[in-house]
Task: structure prediction
Amino acid sequence: MDSSSLQILIAMVCYMAVVIVIGIYFAKRSNRSSEEYFLGGRSLGPWVTAMSAEASDMSGWLLMGLPGVAYWSGLSDAVWTAIGLALGTYINWLLVARRLRRYSAIAGDAITIPDFFSNRFHEKKKVIMTIAALFILIFFTVYASSCFVTCGKLFSTLFGASYQSMMVVGALFVLLYTFLGGFLAESASDFMQALVMIFALTVVLAVGTAAAGGLGAVIDNARSIPGFLTFIGIANPTVDAAGVQQVANGAPVFGEAGSYGLLTIISTMSWGFGYFGMPQVLLRFMAIRRPQELVRSRRIATIWVIISLGAAVCIGLVGRAMFPVHETLNTASGAENVFIVLSRHLLPPLLAGLVMAGILAATISSSDSYLLIAASAFSMNIYKGILKKEATDKQVMTMSRIILLLIAIIGMVIALDENSVIFTIVSFAWAGFGAVFGPIMLFSLFWKRTTQAGAIAGMLTGGVMVFFWNLVLKPLGGVFGIYELFPAFILSCLAILIVSLLTPAPSQEIQAEFQRAKTGADPA
Result:
């Protein structure tokens, strides 16, 4: 290992040590009870709520996946995704946050998302709770694997070690950290990691733009590539059978620009629908100490998201200007290393280490959320809720740690392929959560006529359609080539509406509870 790599490693180890200290600091409080471990006793302030929600939401794809898409195929895919996410963030905080905080406290003081849905419909047989918990387990395992892929790519690119071994090391670190501190540790460190992420993005963008010759040079380079700098087209890198971009006379080869029509734009912007069903974000709404503070949180979160997404997209364009040809960036998967390549090339080693700790920050902040929520879904909602109702808090927390380990192992198996594209893995899991939980969350909060049968129909329809559309219909291309979240979300809404109207209205007790959540005083 050369001096530069050693300095980068030192900076990242120091950062990881700070994260571990945070976990240890909160470990004692988190282990008082399952509510403290899984929801932090509803004690988060507005800044921690906002920043931890966005850091856990964005994950490593913000610093690797999104810049990689912009580097590989230009502005359109990346920017329409970013616009959809920014709008989804704002609308979710505006519409869902306060109502969910209030309703989750009224509905049996729910501390998990499956808990809330089950309590909302006064379930006796816990059907919704079971379905919700199982979908959380499935999609968060996929999500966790995307974070492990990020760790593997980061460390293997930095230190030249094998991808698989570095992926396992990163996964074990995340697992250890999640074991220690629970929700409070996760939220406190996510606040710090959100700061590191936005610092890393803005520093690399500013330095990279200057090194590339200024904004004008970056734009001129992008304009020279067919379909690269347009909102209604997409660049098509010419690749060989192995997916490696071809080079002629020292320049990358592109084919004719592809079309990017209205349906594709709507499909790409539908990423924003996913927010209504993201457990890691929804839990922050439930955990804030006072609902009145959510207004400040919304403003903080929206500003952070707009700056971060904008910087990530622009970094991809800057990377293409600085490194039109680069052996590390010559495939769709390799292009996701553009942030790392720029950091190493432009910054002093210690600062590069701190900046690349931003990738680690994004990965840790998301994967610990995914592991913790998935473990809570099983231990609280299936183990205690169904299998062993008399389970003590200690038994629930022991089970949660067993499930943490199993999910991490499965996630590592999924992440073994070093050619995995982070953006693709994240998009599938995002669609799953958006289609399964997004529609039923909105209907549960805003339509008192929603029935238990409607909720079940909507969740199953959304979950099944994500798999069916992605695996069966999408490969057909044409109109079926749209992002699976969009059709699955719409069909889930229709299923909830139709089945609810065809089944008996909810009991007066459920409707009265709905009315209290809608108009009653905010709980403390």
About this structure: Strands lie at 233-234, 247-248, 251-252, 258-259. Residues 163-211 form the longest helix (49 residues).
